[in-house]
Design a protein that fits this description.
Strand content of chain B: 15-25%
Number of helices of chain A: 10
Order of helices and strands of chain A: HEEHHEHEEHEHEHEEHHEH
CATH topology of the largest domain in chain B: 2-enoyl-CoA Hydratase, Chain A, domain 1
Radius of gyration of chain B: 21 Å
Number of domains of chain B: 2
Low-confidence stretches of chain A: 1-12
Oligomer: heterodimer
Distance between the termini of chain B: 50 Å
Largest sheet of chain B: 8 strands, mixed
Helix content of chain A: 25-40%
Mean pLDDT of chain B: 96
Low-confidence stretches of chain B: none
Number of helices of chain B: 14
CATH superfamily of the largest domain in chain B: 2-enoyl-CoA Hydratase, Chain A, domain 1
Structural class of chain B: alpha/beta
Shape of chain A: globular
Structural class of chain A: alpha/beta
Bound molecules: zinc ion
Mean pLDDT of chain A: 92
Number of strands of chain B: 8
Largest sheet of chain A: 8 strands, mixed
Number of strands of chain A: 10
Chain lengths: 282, 316
Amino acid sequence: MVLDAFRKQKNVAAPLELENRDIPDGIWSKCGHCGEILLNKDLIRNYKVCQCGFHFRLTAPERIQMTLDSGSFREIDAGLLPVNPFALSDYAGKLVEARNKSGLNEAVIYGEGTIDKIPVVVVVMDTNFMMASMGTVAGEKITRAMELATAECKPLIIFAASGGARMQEGILSLMQLAKTVEALARLNEAGQLYITVITDPTTGGVSASFAALGDIILAEPDSMIGFTGPRVIEQTIRQKLPEGFQRAEFFKQHGFIDKIVPRPQMKETLAKLLALHLQGEK
Amino acid sequence: MAAILEFERPIQELENKINELRKFSSEKGIDLSNEIAILEKRAGEVRKSIYGNLNSWQHVLIARHPQRPNTYDYINFIFDDFIELHGDRYFGDDPAVVGGVGWFNGRPVTVIGQLKGKDTNENLARNFGMAHPEGYRKAVRLMKQAEKFNRPVICFIDTPGAYPGIGAEERGQFEAIARSMSVMSTLKVPIVTIVIGEGFSGGALGIGVGDRILMQEHAIYSVITPEGYASILWKDSSRARDAAEAIRIIARDILELGVADKIIAEPLGGAHQDPEAAAAMLGKALTETLDELLKLKLEDLTSQRYEKFRSIGNLK
Ligand SMILES: [Zn+2]
C-alpha cells in the first residue's frame, strides 16, 4: 500500500476531537492490514486510520462527524424506510437485521451542512446497511439530494460506497441508476459543483452511475472500485487477479480518479476545492 | 426448424403424429383428413394452453432461445440501406455492440444494439453480447452523431450484462456505462429502447435510458440474471427458476412496474418461430412510438424523459 506518505507531510490534520459517547463499543480493534491491535479511542482520534495507513470503514455518522463542521449537519428524510416491492420474506428479514446492525433506516443518509462554513448538500452511504446496496429508497434519497443541491445552488458531495444494486428490488433497483444520472444532469446544467468521494468498496451499479460522474473524483487510499467485483472476474477468467487490481491507486493510474486523499486530509481538501468553486474573488 | 424447448414437447409430439399420418395417407392413398383435422385442432389447443400459461422461467428460455432473432436480424428486416459504423475512436471496436445508420419509414435513424451470436463460434466472436467499455463509448459517439444530424436513436437491448474481465475494468467499465447513461439522459433527439431478448444489469441499462422502453412479449429485464441472483443471495445457482419468479423479470411484470411502456406481441411460441413476422410486429410498434415522440417539442421530450425515470418506484 502507498498509504504512509501522508503521515510525513507537514499539515497532518489535528486529531479528531470527540465526546466520550462517540467512541465505539469495545476497547480495541484489529487492523485488517497489519494485524496491529489498536485502542478504539486512539483509532477514532486518528480518523480510524491505522499507523500502517489502513483505512477502517466508517459508519455514516462517523463520516459526517469527520467531514462537516461540528453541529452543522441537518439530516433530511431520515424517516424514509426501505420498500420490499415483491414482498420477499428473506429480504424483509435482511432489512430488519440491517437496521439493527447499522442503526440506520436505509444505507444512504443525506442532508445539509457546512464544510469550513461553506454550505453543502452531502450524501453518505453506509456499508453496515446491506453493503450499502442501492434500492428504490436509497436511489430516491440520492436523487432528492441532487434536486436539493440544484434548487438551492449548493455544491453536492457524495461519499460513495456500495456493493452494487439492491438485487431484491429487481428492475426497480436497476432503474435507480438512470434516475440518479438524470438528476445529476440537471445539477450539471445548473452549473453546480459535484464532488464524488470514492470509499471502500464502490462497485456495481453505484460505481457505474453517479459515483463515476463527479466534476472531481476523489478516493480514499486503497478503496476497491469497479463495475464487476473481483470474485466474479476471477471465476470468469479462471485466474487470480494481480495485486492492487481495481484499487483507487490502480484507477488513478488508469485515469479515472483525480486524486487520492487520505482521510485525515479529506475535510481540508474538500474545503479548498469548495472555496475554488465559490462565485467571486478571494 | 427451431430447436425444441423442454416444455414444448407435447406440441412436438402432436406435430410428429400429424406428419406421420400425412405421410402414411399420401403413400397408401388413404384419406385420413378427418383424423388429421382432429389432431391439428388438438395441437392448436395445446399450443395456446402452453404458450398462454408460460411461467417466468419458460419466458427466460424463449428469451434466450439460440435461434431467437438478434439485433442484426431486426436491422436487416426493418431498416433500409443500413450502414454499420465501427469503433469508439479511443481504443477499439467492440463486437458485442453494433451501431450504424439506416432508413426507417423514409427517415434516417441511428441504430445501436447489443449483439448475441446464434452459435458458439458467433458467441465467442461477440463475447455473448457482453460489452466492453469501448462498446458503450461507440454508443456514445453514435448518439452524439445522431444528435448533430437530428435523427432518432433506436437501441436494441440483448445482453446478460457487461463483460467481466481485466481489460474491461482497466479501461473503466464503470465510467463507460455511467457516461453513456448520462449522455442519453440529455440527448436532444428521441430515443427508443427495445428489449429484444435478455436485458440484465447496468450492462443493459448502459444503452437503455430512453424516452420509451418497449419489450417484446418474451423479453426479460432485470438487475441481475436469475442465475446470478440465486448464486449470490442463495448460494445455489440451481435455483435460478425460483429467482426468475421472485424478482419479476418478464415483460408483463416490467410493464406493471411502470418501467416498460409497451409490450410488442410475438408470433405464437416466440419470435424464433417466425422472425419475419416478429420483425413486422416490432416495426409497427416502433413506427407508432416514434410518431408519438417526433410530435413532441424538444423541451417536452427531455422533461418527459426525466419524469419517466424520476417516477419509477415512486414513494408517494
Ligand atoms: Zn494497520
